[in-house]
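Format notes (please read before filing issues)

Several people have asked whether sequences and structure tokens are stored in separate files. They are not. Every record keeps both together, in the order shown below: the sequence lines, then the token lines. Line labels are part of the format and must not be stripped during preprocessing.
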Amino acid sequence: MDELVARIALTRIKGLQRSAKKELFDAFGSAALLFEKTCPVPDAETRKKLKDFSEFKAIEKELTGLSRKGIEVLSLGEPTYPTLLSSLRDAPLVLFKKGPGVIPDSVLSIVGSRKATYEGLQIATTVAETVSSMGITVVSGLARGIDGAAHKGAIRQKGGTIAVLGSGMDICYPAENRRLFEEIAERGALVTEYGLGQKPIPPNFPERNRIIAGLAKGVLVVEAAVKSGSLITARLALEYGREVMALPGRIFDEAYQGANRLIKQGAKLIGGTEDIMEACFPDMTRPAQTTSDSIDLNEQQHYIYGLFGSGRVHVDEIVQHSRMETRKVLAILTQLEMKDMITPFPGGFFMRKV
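Then the structure lines:
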């Protein structure tokens, strides 16, 4: 039996946990061997499940369809399989990948609320754009809200982005992210462990989250309520020995309760991109920035930055002089901070760096 067909078959046997399938594979060193009648699998029920599986022809047909669609199959133990992911006790035996992007070791996961605030979306976009410009690949789940913002920020830069799907490669979920889905397929990488036609049912997403955590050296939670899928990803990251980080928010704002709780429980508090780099990528240096002209700023960022003098400036002064809404100013200040152009101080004060 073809080994690749056997591996996919093993992943699709019902009633066995993923960790049990990985243990079987590790114990015998071959999925094809497991389906041989003489294979000495000790558990009788598992032997029966292996014996009763009969969808091999359908898998062979599916592999032909995957090839026609330009979808690669990454097998555990092969050079193309992500190194960090391979260490998980429940690592997928196969991954389906579409897009030119590679999956390196320098990966950061950015996750957060689907019902994100304007400020949260701006922060996620800016953090992703900044770390991606330094060659770091951003992984997330293509969900609405923080996930989508992270993908959009990263895909503009050299690091690129990976979207881990909770469905088959032929299904875009949510449908509203179709354009982003197609852009990532063209410039980054779409990844899933599910076969063609697999719908995005609820149980798939916690399973998908383990891949988001496992691919990265660290997970950054930008915004999350107390009951959030992002906290599942953070918990899994802790189990896998990854760095868990969170951006703090207003203590009475429900949108930040989950992230604030993570910090209280020991997650690293992130105040700027340099904190992420120190925690996850200490060997990667940031490109030197000598003047504000050498940094890519949009019109609003240039305007707010121009309000700074040589000393400390309070946020209320910036709001007053800019005549913008407070939340808008705060979002822009966060963006400038992530670009390493200003430094925050206690009490709502900021000072320019460049």
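For reference, the curators noted about this record: The chain is about 45% helix and 15% strand. The two ends are 63 Å apart (CA to CA).
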